[in-house]
Amino acid sequence: MKPYRLHAFICQGKRCAARGSEDIYEEMKARLKDLGLKGEIKLTKSGCVSVCKETETEGEYSPVMVIYPEGTWYRNVEVSDIDEIIEKHFRKGEIIERLLHYRLGRQSGSTK
Ligand code: FES
Hints:
Elements: E1 6-11, H1 14-17, H2 21-34, E2 41-46, E3 65-68, E4 72-74, H3 82-92, E5 100-103
Parallel strand pairs: 1-2
Antiparallel strand pairs: 1-3, 3-4, 4-5
Bound molecules: FE2/S2 (inorganic) cluster.
FE2/S2 (inorganic) cluster (FES) binds near residues 48, 49, 51 and 62.
């Protein structure tokens, strides 16, 4: 088995789940399968990654997705964002600025 190129976690904690993270997981899983990317990109459900607690109104940034190895954290992901995430981020390595929460080791909102 070849190693995965990317590993994406989709939060299934209660605040993200309340805002549709299960649908995002299922839809993305189906799209990766349809596109033949299942062996290249690993998709995993995660527990709460605490981004939902960063605002006064909890869950304001939900649903959250985290992509490794580069450590990109996206917030407010919707089912309608899935194709763009696959095409731009997964295929081309481009960061989707409007969804970016932060990248590991960098200031919030910075891609540098
Ligand atoms: S429930 Fe998803 S970040 Fe907390």
